[in-house]
Specification:
With 309 residues, this protein is α+β, with helices and mostly antiparallel strands. It folds into three domains: 88 residues, no CATH class; 127 residues, Jelly Rolls, CATH 2.60.120.1440; 70 residues, Phage tail protein beta-alpha-beta fold (3-Layer(bab) Sandwich), CATH 3.55.50. Helix content is 27%, strand content 34%. The strands form three sheets. Strands 1, 2, 3, 4, 5, 6, 7, 8, 9, 10, 11, 12 and 13 form a 13-stranded mixed beta sheet that branches. Strands 15-18-17 form a three-stranded mixed beta sheet. A two-stranded antiparallel sheet has the order 14-16. Helix 1 packs across helix 4, helix 2 packs across helix 3 and helix 3 packs across helix 4.
Amino acid sequence: MPQDRDRIEDQAVEWVIRQRDPAFADWDGFADWMAQAPAHAEAYHVAAIADQDMADLLATPVPKPLAPPAPRRAVGRRAWISGAIAASLAGVIGWQVIERQPALYSIETIPGTRRTVTLPEGTVVMLNGGTRLTLDGKDPRHAVLERGEALFAVVHDEARPFSVAVGGATLLDVGTRFNVLREGGTTEVQVSEGAVVYNPKAEAVRLDPGKTLRAVDGQGEVTLGTVAPDRVAGWTSGRLVYDGQPLAAVAADLARYAGRPVRVAPALAARPFHGALNLGPDGDLAKLGPLLDVEVRRDGAGWALAPAK
């Protein structure tokens, strides 16, 4: 409806104006608004581009006219938004203090919560607990995983590949569904569909379905492995599957999923675990003790994994 579109455009212009303020901090509110409907992201992108056009215009010296001005043309949607931004800024902060602000915004989940975000071009990102993901309002084909875990279901576009920056590396999709974990200076990637290229301008390691990669900051080599494609991102359904990962890594996964700290006795931290853990909605980890061959007991607000008695 025209009224709805006008309202969304007004909101988009308001977000662009607010983000020009160096003190702007409501990125969570902006991310929520962007995720509410594809029309929000579309309107914001139009407003942001119009804003850039206006900034470029202000930076260009205006010569004296050599001829009478041309007849006025009909004002298009993008030009109208540019004018709205200009008028608002002139009234609020004045022309001399206009300052460009980045179009980046972050989405963050606390431990124990999960969230699904649909990007404007259709890519779906599922965030596990304790995750921070940064997106670019001007480039919906790029994301930065700062920490935590996320499952990417990418809409493939050969002309505009989707990329994920993580831990100083870049993942480039080839029509893909893949899981990325970033924690403690370590990056782990698992692919269930399509393919991912790890650091296309350096190592250029291709990961096909069922392939995994582990990279540690400061180490020049990556470790490759395998996983059943249907086991990738089992956390989305409350099922964690392991094939020799240390209990310290298992504990970190449990903490991220359950939203409570999980401490591991030093003697157990490096012990490998093979098996599957089914996590219920009650958050009770004590039942996992026999499966892990440890004692799981309460530890303040969290849990502790200790040697079985």
